[in-house]
Amino acid sequence: MDQGQSYNSEIICKLFTGHYLKKQAAIMKITFLTEEWTQSTKGSCSTFMRQMAIELSRLENVEIGILIPSASPEDKEDAQKYNIKVFEPEKLTGYEPVNCLQFPPQGFSTDFIIGQGIKSGCYGQVFKNNLGCKWVHVVLRNAEETAMFQKTPGAISEGQKQRETEVELCKKADMVITVGSKLNETFRSALHQCKKDHVFNLIPGIFDEFSGEQKQFQNSKNFEILVFGKGSTEDFELKGLHVAAKAVAHLNKYEPSYILKVVGAPEGEQEKLAGRLEDLEISRSQLIVRSFYKERRKLAQLFSEVDLVLMPSGTEAFGLTALEALSAGVPILITHNSGLAEALEEVLFGHGCIVHKEADWAEKIKQARKNLKTRLEEASMLRNKYKEKYCWRDQCTAFVTKLRALHSECAKEVEQESQGKRHSARQQLADPAKDPNQSASKTDFSSVSGKRLKAAVMKITFLTEEWTQSTKGSCSTFMRQMAIELSRLENVEIGILIPSASPNDKVDAEKYNIKVFEPENYPGFDLVDCLQFPPQGFSTDFIIGHGIKPGCHGQVLKNKLSCKWVHVVLRNAEEIAVFKETPDAIPEGQKQHETEVKLCKNADVVLTVGSKLNETFKPALHQCKKDHIFNLIPGIFDEFFGEQKQYRNPKNFEILVFGKGNTEDFKLEGLHVAAEAVAHLNKYEPSYNLKVVGAPEGEQKKLAKKLKGLGISLNHLIVRSFYKERGQLAQLFSEVDLVLMPSGTEAFGLTALEALSACVPILITHNSGLAEALKEVPFGRGCIVHQEADWAEKIKQARKNLKTGLEEASMLRDKYKEKYCWRDQCAAFVKKLRALHSGHAEEMQQESQYKRHSAQKRVAEIAIQDSKKISPVGKKMAEKMSDQKAVYPSEEDRIVIEIGSSEDEDERSDDEPCASGQNVAASGYTEVKQEEKDGSAAKKPKLDTVEEPGTSGVSSSHETRKFKVRKGNPELDELEQLANDIDPSVWKKVARKLKIDNPVITAIDKENEEFYEKKYTMLQEWKQANGSAATWRELNQALMDANLRELAEKHCCAKMN
């Protein structure tokens, strides 16, 4: 921090608002990240996290919570039985429920966050950085070992990648839990290289929910065997279903009384799995296939139905399903290649449950049936011995001890930092030359809030996945061109936030004076999702994103950086879905469209690309009074604007069309239309060649075969893969005579506009944004094709009049450029942003001044608390400092900080009356009465009493009727009454006086339509965020500061006799 900036509000906020762990807290707060609670659709992952949370909740001085995407009433009721708190994250538009785990609710705090795996575990690092808590990462699987038994293509390389990611997460975590010795040996060696000492090995104990009565021996005719597995191609051999099926089939050849129950098939896939098992020679009469049991309570019933549970997996990190069966007293047989097998080797009777060779399974099952009564007794004894050996309570106690040691280290570091900041505060108090208020007034507001308020240059940053490449099609094309065009305007500074910028990206961006920023890379996050984590020191005035991804990250950056968010609409998913042939395309398109509309509603400005999209989205946004909608029609692309394309009279007529050609997009892109039209023309004049560009790498032959089936000869067909580099497009356009865009629908049609920019004649579908734009331009209508049957004739005419067509294309390009000028539209867009920015800057300036006042107030409180400790000189300087007035937005809101009472006196002030008509509550401010100024009254005023309306404030004490501020905390019903009385025009002012952050106020404003709901939600937020500190006294002060004295007296005070 610069010397000139002094002790600003941001630092004081961190010091006093709970960003640091409390020193020597008696109760340690531990929160688990989990996707489910009472259900177990995620298998062993959720099973372990649930049980560990329950076991920890039974210990003293530990407060357990779970952060779950969506908690059902059953989840909440079940968690309450164990005194486990349930938290649900903020629901952000465009994020999957599990991805929302990184956004905890307002006021959430914890000492430790515990996550597992990659999907939810990766959010631990976000919590660690944002909340200042410690992060524990739980390892439940070895993806690399698992992949060796999976049959899907690329499984091994993907397994390696996942394991490397998990190791990276472990290295970053403050502590690692490995579940079982098998995983511990694997990961400890990897972490030993980075000196990761905080590795805790936990071997799961018996599950009490299944350890009820002793399972009774029944000499039934059939022997019921249970095995778990999905039965998919990926997991069939991994879970050893083939081993179980073959063993049971073999036994039934000699004694047909063994029944195999397979539980875990996806819903609707049971028949498919039964057929696959039947191929392994097991009879359907000896086979039962069931779907997965989502509810854990059903497992107890399932275990009671069977005589033996198998776990014949190729590998198991631990094997919790078998441990659950053992907890229920059911005999088990398990693979030797599992963590549970290693644990059982240390327990009496444990060896008998382990199968070492695949050929031994049938014999082991046979012996289990032969000695079933004995095996049931052994299972009961094994369960008891296992419980004694691997006790949940003992292990959890040891784990908490380790956490407390880690917590203590952290607390010491924080306390040292806190003391350093307090020392700096006291130095400033002792040196009036270093007035925080004076220095803050000279500081650029960007140092306080990440925002340059009155800067001549406005900073605009684009979220984009690529720059010089075009693998994302029209999305990256538009974002790139708009960034370039904006960079050409004055007083605008353009940047791009890109996941991974290549050297070419940086060189190209530099040509346009565009700054390149790369986000922080968090292990476990996709590159595009890292865009929500800007680099240190990054700031911007506007963030511009598009689509659902990466557009959804705009809302995160808006809250994080206090900037404005512009959302760009480039497609209508609902309309596109109608032309797709994949199952569920239409409902999925509807879902995506609804998500994009929600993003638009949350954004500060919406930019639609073309009139077609504008007409679609404007009505949807009109309902929520979204006025900041800007329609931009893309102009000509200068990079293709070269010399006039020359006429040539070739033997063949080269036609270009873009498209991937996959099943999903084949008809959407109109490739069948282009192929059929060219095939028709070649019947009479075989000289039309069709170039299809955009096939996925390696899929060109497949697409050529599909097109050939539409009647086009391979002699007249060329299929190429997608051009990743934009520089190759100019060469491509120079090779062709005509470009087609025969799509079923196009939101705009930038590929055709790029071709027109290169002066190539085009023919486009009428159902596109570009067609609507061309209707307003001379020669434009001639490029539009209205009916599918007309394409062949239109192509034929384009060839016949090629020379004229080239001239018309050149004139059309010029007229289009004149009509839809990038510079004019971008200038209008920036003007709109500046108007929005100006209003935002005013709010931010008031907020900044408010924070500086709060900071000064807190500095004074430090002096009060330490008044008995500091020297008389320091105390005198603090009193001198306190006499200075703080800068505040308006004269009537100006407050004087009074340092005259000790902390003890401050605590007693609720019971001490004073005569004053000014702001008197928690700030310690009071106006001294006339007789006190004259010396006729005591010098020290009393606090927490306000004068009844109508009194003068200078009359004698017997003429003044007074009010005493109520003690304690307001209840919700009392806040409801207050919300009714607050005028709608001032609720935001009250919110700021209650020290509610500006982004929170904005969110409350947007999420609630009724003013009453805004006011009540604001008061609710204050109460929840401050807990026991949300007192009547604080509320009274806020209302007085907001010039709402009558409300303060009515709701926060009691009249004194």
From TrEMBL:
- Coiled coil ranges (UniProt) are 362-389
The record's keywords, sorted A to Z, are: Coiled coil
Q: Where is the composition biased (Polar residues)?
A: 436-446
Basic and acidic residues biased stretches: 928-945
Q: Which GO terms describe its biological process?
A: signal transduction
Question: InterPro entries, alphabetically?
Answer: DEATH-like_dom_sf, Death_dom
Death domain mapped to chain residues: 987-1049
* Matching SMART domains: DEATH
List compositional bias (Acidic residues) regions by residue number: 901-913
Q: Where is this region: Disordered?
A: 414-446, 872-968
Classification via PANTHER family: GLYCOSYLTRANSFERASE
User: What is the name of this protein?
Assistant: Death domain-containing protein
